[in-house]
């Protein structure tokens, strides 16, 4: 939402006639907030805020569900979008009046644009969609929010709920691929790729090989990306014994011999490669490879501790002591 839109919304609230000056509210006696006789910290509410919530308390006490209380909750939600009780009250009124929930989706959509990291606005939208079953525009709406912040946790959580509940998986991998083309380091998109496969095809042998091709290509183009290395770790654990167990090691060894050793050894972009190679060597339980693996672990730890990842020097020294040559 642009600053001008936000300012217009603020102006709209400030220009509203006070509820106490509206004839249609003359029958309601507002209930002030009870902070006790000696509040430790008295919150400096605005007059608009205080009056709105005084009327909300009065209407909730009588359980009034009318068009005027629906309008009242709208103002209250705009003043404090994090107030769970007001959103709950608003839903009760909407359902009681059989209001047009498409209009409510438009309203909550605007509220989300203004407050994209507020849990309550996302929860309200989820419950309205669940009630109405209107899902046709939801994925594109979420995409518009993620376009402004591709790592918005609430948007991703809502998207995952939507995909699972309504089986809207058909184009999700294409969408994720688009996000990764825009930003290969988008850890949320890598997480989403794992989520989609886990809930659709599962990590069967052919899917694993396809995903290995995919992630290896992305690692080669950007080796200094922890998200893609973590994705590799995640899918490798699903490999069955009938697959080529050397594939992952060969991939890493090729990067090490043909890229790392020809590059500047001080280049930090290789720290994830060397760290993962150490993990593979530690997991290799072949007796005939034990001493060779220890020597290589020692060599890799030396490079990491002294040249590539010196900020974690003590950690690599510890790994060397535990798994390298004595």
From TrEMBL:
PROSITE patterns: PFTA. GO terms for molecular function: CAAX-protein geranylgeranyltransferase activity; protein farnesyltransferase activity. Keywords: Magnesium, Prenyltransferase, Repeat, Transferase. Its cofactor is Mg(2+). Its EC number is 2.5.1.58, 2.5.1.59. The keyword Transferase applies. One of its GO terms (cellular component) is CAAX-protein geranylgeranyltransferase complex. The keyword Transferase applies. Belongs to the protein prenyltransferase subunit alpha family. This is Protein farnesyltransferase/geranylgeranyltransferase type-1 subunit alpha.
């Amino acid at each position: 939402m642009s600053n001008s839109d936000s300012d217009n919304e603020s102006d709209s609230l400030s220009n509203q006639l006070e509820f106490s000056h509206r004839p249609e509210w003359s029958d309601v006696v507002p209930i002030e907030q009870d902070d006790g006789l000696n509040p430790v910290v008295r919150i400096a509410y605005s007059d608009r805020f205080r009056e709105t919530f005084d009327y909300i308390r009065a209407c909730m006490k009588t359980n009034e569900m009318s068009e005027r209380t629906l309008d009242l909750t709208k103002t209250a939600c705009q003043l404090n979008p994090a107030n769970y009780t007001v959103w709950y009250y608003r839903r009760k009124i909407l359902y009681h009046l059989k209001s047009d929930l498409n209009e409510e989706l438009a309203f909550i959509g605007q509220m989300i644009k203004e407050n994209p990291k507020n849990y309550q606005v996302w929860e309200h939208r989820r419950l309205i969609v669940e009630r109405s079953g209107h899902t046709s525009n939801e994925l594109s709406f979420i995409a518009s929010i993620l376009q402004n912040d591709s790592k918005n946790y609430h948007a991703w959580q809502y998207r995952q709920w939507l995909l699972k509940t309504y089986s809207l998986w058909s184009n999700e991998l294409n969408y994720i691929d688009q996000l990764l083309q825009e930003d290969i380091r988008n850890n949320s998109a890598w997480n989403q790729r794992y989520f989609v496969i886990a809930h659709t095809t599962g990590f069967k042998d052919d899917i694993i090989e396809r995903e290995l091709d995919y992630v290896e290509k992305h690692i080669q183009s950007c080796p200094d990306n922890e998200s893609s290395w973590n994705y590799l770790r995640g899918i490798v654990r699903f490999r069955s014994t009938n697959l080529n167990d050397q594939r992952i090691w060969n991939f890493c060894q090729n990067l090490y011999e043909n890229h790392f050793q020809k590059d500047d050894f001080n280049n930090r972009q290789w720290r994830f490669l060397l760290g993962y190679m150490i993990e593979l060597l530690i997991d290799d339980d072949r007796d005939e490879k034990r001493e060779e693996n220890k020597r290589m672990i020692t060599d890799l730890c030396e490079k990491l501790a002294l040249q590539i990842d010196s900020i974690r020097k003590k950690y690599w020294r510890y790994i060397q002591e535990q798994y390298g040559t004595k």
